[in-house]
Specification:
Helices cover about 45% and strands about 15% of the residues. The chain is of the alpha/beta class. Strands 1, 2, 3, 6, 13, 14 and 15 form a 7-stranded mixed β-sheet that branches. Helix 3 runs antiparallel to helix 15 (about 340-350) and helix 10 packs across helix 18. It is globular and about 70 Å long.
């Protein structure tokens, strides 16, 4: 799923999902989940149940071609028919109620910030130990963090996204810059605001794109694992120092934050050769290729010798606790991240697999740009899954542009962020 759409979905779904997590579950929920787990564990090497048939629900319309193709391959291998359906038309709350009634899909795709919520609501089947063990071998460690909780694994990471630094090879001669300091030096002879020429560009109005700058001195919203719902960390010195980094980036990008918030402008700048470096994600690769841009992909720059870290975004396949066929459903979810599944994900959905090793994934292994994005993803950290993460997005979007534009000092912004956080809590 395109990251900007994914973020919008995540924000809108938080309130809906929180209600689902509070309601009392039907009495058959634990029975269904426990029965599925027992059947799976007792089987050893899983085999589909006799007469099994599954429904697989995607999370976006652009995944449906992939879903149908991988369903066909799975049926050929296991003899289990899988019906694929587009889940983008389903309201999250209705989908949860449907699952609890036993009428929902056996396997469904979901953005990773929903995993904890769905697991607490009793909607997810804990995966068989054998499958969980194999996933830990096959799947990126970063991605596995998004489905691992309470000593169990509650889904299969399928596709991944993160922010990276694209560079225009016609403008950048030799190896791409590795540090903010080098970017700043190189920008002196190129930047010309009057001609809309900028050596480096990045959106500084969204929490996700600001975070690499905020992360420099160790700031991690909602704690080490992004799950501490009680504290977003706005009162930590690492956050204020991160805001100082954000302010310094204005020297590299002498433009208004409002202009940098326009993604179409940023993309056009890059493909027309008016920008040498752009922070964006894999969803832009197709656009750059269609524009015949000669571009490369590299890691985010360091700052003061310290690494900038991007958020990781993962789409997970999760098995319903109410499926009638837990063995077949788990096998199908696992198959989505097999080499065969990863190949179809690349060819039919233009998405990147969560597999650690992509050397055997035909197409993706030979794709210079997307292979580089895989490397960058493995250096990222999962987006926070705390229920109050929407407060972080709102507060960051409020104070970040003001700091970048010089309308607020980092010190004042940090105090305002903490004040806004406290206000949100009181209003709950």
């Amino acid at each position: 799923m395109k990251l900007k759409s994914m973020l919008a979905f995540a924000l809108s779904a938080l309130m809906v999902g929180s209600m689902a997590g509070c309601r009392e579950l039907p009495k058959n929920a634990k029975t269904a989940s426990a029965a599925g787990s027992t059947a799976a564990s007792a089987t050893g090497e899983l085999k589909p149940e006799s007469g099994a048939k599954l429904t697989f629900r995607t999370s976006s319309a652009n995944q449906i071609k992939f879903a149908k193709a991988v369903a066909k391959k799975f049926e050929e291998k296991y003899g289990v028919k899988v019906t694929a359906e587009d889940g983008s038309v389903y309201d999250q709350n209705k989908a949860n109620l449907e699952a609890a009634s036993g009428k929902g899909p056996d396997v469904f795709m979901s953005p990773h910030d929903k995993t904890i919520e769905n697991q607490r609501a009793g909607l997810l089947l804990k995966l068989n130990d054998g499958i969980a063990s194999q996933l830990k071998k096959d799947v990126s460690d970063v991605a596995m963090k998004t489905v691992t909780m309470n000593g169990g694994v509650y889904g299969v990471p399928v596709s991944v996204e993160t922010y990276v630094m694209f560079y225009n090879k016609k403008l950048v001669k030799g190896a791409p810059a590795a540090s903010f300091e080098q970017l700043l030096r190189d920008s002196k002879d190129f930047n010309n605001a009057g001609q809309n020429k900028f050596w480096f560009l990045s959106n500084v109005s969204e929490g996700a794109t600001m975070y690499p700058m905020l992360s420099v001195y160790g700031y991690k919203p909602f704690g080490e694992n992004g799950t501490d719902n009680e504290n977003a960390g706005f009162d930590k010195p690492e956050f204020e120092k991160g805001l100082e980094v954000l302010k310094k980036y204005h020297d590299l990008m002498p433009a208004a934050s409002g202009d940098l918030a326009n993604w179409d402008f940023l993309t056009n700048q890059f493909v027309t050769g008016k920008t040498a470096y752009l922070i964006s994600g894999p969803w832009n690769v197709k656009t750059f290729r269609n524009a015949k841009a000669d571009f490369g992909v590299t890691s985010l720059p360091t700052y003061d010798g310290k690494k900038e870290t991007s958020f990781a975004f993962v789409q997970n396949a999760q098995v319903s606790a109410y499926t009638k066929y837990p063995n077949a459903a788990q096998l199908f979810a696992q198959y989505l991240v097999s080499n065969e599944g990863a190949e179809l994900l690349y060819s039919d959905a233009s998405c990147i697999t969560a597999r650690k090793d992509i050397s055997q994934v035909k197409g993706l292994a030979q794709d210079e740009q997307l292979s580089a994005i895989v490397k960058c993803f493995n250096e990222s950290m999962p987006m926070p899954t705390a229920k109050r993460v929407s407060y972080f997005w709102t507060i960051a979007a409020n104070i970040g542009p003001a700091v970048f534009d010089g309308k607020m000092t980092p010190q004042a912004a940090a105090k305002k962020a903490k004040s806004n956080w406290d206000s949100f809590l009181k209003a709950e």
